[in-house]
Design a protein that fits this description.
7-stranded mixed β-sheet; alpha/beta; Rossmann fold; about 15% strand; globular
């Protein structure tokens, strides 16, 4: 668990499959004025060693690493991290009082794209990496060659590809957690990785935000709108 900075109530950011704590670079600055911001890294991602492979097992591991604040904690989880965050909320209801889920795995209108999950650990060259990563967004220019190079560098770490392949299979075959009470749900309408259940989101009213012309990374593609919604939710 990495402390990004800030003071006040704690909020923990949990990234998605194939990402790491740096995936929140457009999110954390908006939260630092009012919160103590922390970022988790899932097993075999970023600087984290391989470990648990299923969302529920990751949730158990992360609940043991939550910052000791003496007050309630908020979680913001994206994609696989959204499923983990929802499980954590069920495991620690007295400690976790707010949960924001961004395109959370297990809550969409169908399965998460298997070609993306299974293809990611097998990436070997920059061109293929760029093509796969650009499935995440509507505006492909947001995915720069440096991002593909960064991904390939991390994939080349010992045991990383094998561990991510196991996590990918677990993400395709898991029982989704219950929706946390009063959770905020944020989704991109054009998500090609984890298609939104628009009818369900509509039924949530103000608790849901469906963004047009946005793919699987709303916190990157529509950062200003998402950050405004997150801050309002956390401070309500």
């Amino acid at each position: 668990m990495h402390h990004i900075g800030g003071e006040g109530p704690a909020v923990v950011l949990i990234h998605g499959f194939g990402s790491d704590r740096l995936g929140w670079v457009a999110t954390s600055p908006a939260l630092l004025a009012s919160h103590s911001v922390w970022a988790a890294e899932l097993p075999a991602h970023g600087t984290a060693e391989p470990g648990p492979t299923t969302p529920i097992d990751m949730a158990h591991a992360l609940t043991k690493m939550l910052p000791e604040t003496g007050n309630s904690i908020a979680l913001i989880g994206h994609s696989l991290g959204g499923a983990v965050a929802a499980h954590m909320a069920a495991l620690k209801p007295s400690q976790i009082d707010r949960v924001a889920l961004i395109a959370p795995a297990g809550f969409g209108d169908g399965e998460v794209a298997a070609d993306f999950l299974r293809g990611f650990p097998k990436l070997q060259d920059e061109e293929d990496a760029l093509a796969l990563l650009r499935q995440l967004v509507v505006r492909e220019r947001l995915i720069m060659p440096q991002m593909a190079q960064y991904v390939l560098k991390h994939l080349d770490q010992p045991g990383r590809r094998e561990a991510l392949a196991q996590i990918a299979e677990a993400a395709l075959n898991f029982m989704p957690p219950a929706t946390p009470d009063d959770a905020l749900i944020i989704w991109g309408e054009e998500d090609a990785i984890n298609s939104p259940d628009k009818a369900w989101l509509s039924s949530l009213g103000d608790r849901a935000m469906l963004l047009p012309n946005t793919g699987h990374l709303p916190h990157v593609e529509a950062a200003t709108k998402v950050n405004r919604q997150l801050v309002a939710y956390l401070q309500a």
